C-alpha cells in the first residue's frame, strides 16, 4: 500500500496531512532524506499529530560524531533497534554523560541539553521520537539534508553548506554548538 500526498516540503509524501485519519506506512516508505552518511525516514510528524510529536528512524554506517546541538523546546528519545550508537549528553548542570546503546537500549535527552551521537557499528538503526511545546522538527532532516526516494544510505555523504546550518537553526528547534567539546571518556 502506498499513499501519496504533497506537503510544503516535498512534492510527494507517504504521510497524510490530516491528523484525524489513521494511516499505515510500509517498512521504509516514510518520507526519506539523506543527511551526512545517514538515511532518515519520517513515519509521523507534526502534520499528523497537530505538532505534538514525531516518529522517525535514522540508519547509518559506523562513522563520525554528529555535531553537538541542543533543542531549546524539544525532548528527544533514542531507541536503538539494530547495531550500536554512542549517545553523548550534557545535562543542565554541565555534567556530561556518555553511553553506548545497543539493540533494545533507550536514551532520553531533556530539552535544552547539549547532545550528539556516533554510530559505532555498520547497519545501526535508531528510532527517534521528539516532542515539545513549540512543535516538532522532523522536517529539519530534509531541509538540511536532501530528500530522497532511495531506500538505502547515500552513495556519498551529503554535507550541507555552512549557510544551510544557519537557515535550519532559524526554522527549526535546533541550535548547533560549534567547537563544543565532550569531556567524557571517549
Automatic annotation (TrEMBL):
Which CDD domains does the protein's record reference? cupin_QDO_N_C
GO molecular function terms listed in the Swiss-Prot or TrEMBL record: quercetin 2,3-dioxygenase activity
E.C. numbers: 1.13.11.24
Q: What class of enzyme is it?
A: oxidoreductase
Identify the keywords attached in UniProt to this record, alphabetized.
Dioxygenase, Oxidoreductase
Gene3D superfamilies named among the record's database cross-references:
Jelly Rolls
Question: Where in this chain does the record put each Cupin type-2 domain?
Answer: 60-121
Give the protein name, as stated in the record: Quercetin 2,3-dioxygenase
Q: Which organism is it from?
A: Actinomadura namibiensis
**Taxonomic lineage per UniProt?**
Bacteria, Bacillati, Actinomycetota, Actinomycetes, Streptosporangiales
Amino acid at each position: 500500500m502506498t499513499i501519496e500526498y504533497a506537503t510544503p516540503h516535498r512534492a510527494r509524501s507517504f504521510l497524510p496531512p490530516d491528523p484525524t485519519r489513521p494511516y499505515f506506512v510500509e517498512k521504509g516508505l516514510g518520507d526519506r532524506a539523506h543527511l551526512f552518511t545517514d538515511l532518515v525516514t519520517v513515519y509521523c510528524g507534526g502534520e499528523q499529530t497537530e505538532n505534538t510529536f514525531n516518529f522517525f528512524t535514522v540508519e547509518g554506517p559506523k562513522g563520525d560524531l554528529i555535531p553537538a546541538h541542543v533543542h531549546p523546546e524539544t525532548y528527544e528519545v533514542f531507541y536503538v533497534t539494530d547495531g550500536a550508537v554512542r549517545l553523548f549528553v550534557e545535562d543542565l548542570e554541565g555534567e556530561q554523560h556518555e553511553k553506548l546503546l545497543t539493540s533494545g537500549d533507550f536514551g532520553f535527552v531533556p530539552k535544552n541539553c547539549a547532545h550528539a551521537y556516533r554510530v559505532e557499528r555498520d547497519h545501526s538503526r535508531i528510532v527517534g521520537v521528539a516532542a515539545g511545546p513549540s512543535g516538532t522538527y522532523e522536517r529539519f532532516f530534509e531541509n538540511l539534508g536532501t530528500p530522497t526516494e532511495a531506500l538505502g544510505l547515500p552513495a556519498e555523504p551529503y554535507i550541507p553548506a555552512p549557510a544551510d546550518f544557519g537557515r535550519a537553526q532559524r526554522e527549526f528547534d535546533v541550535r548547533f554548538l560549534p567547537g563544543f567539546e565532550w569531556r567524557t571518556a571517549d
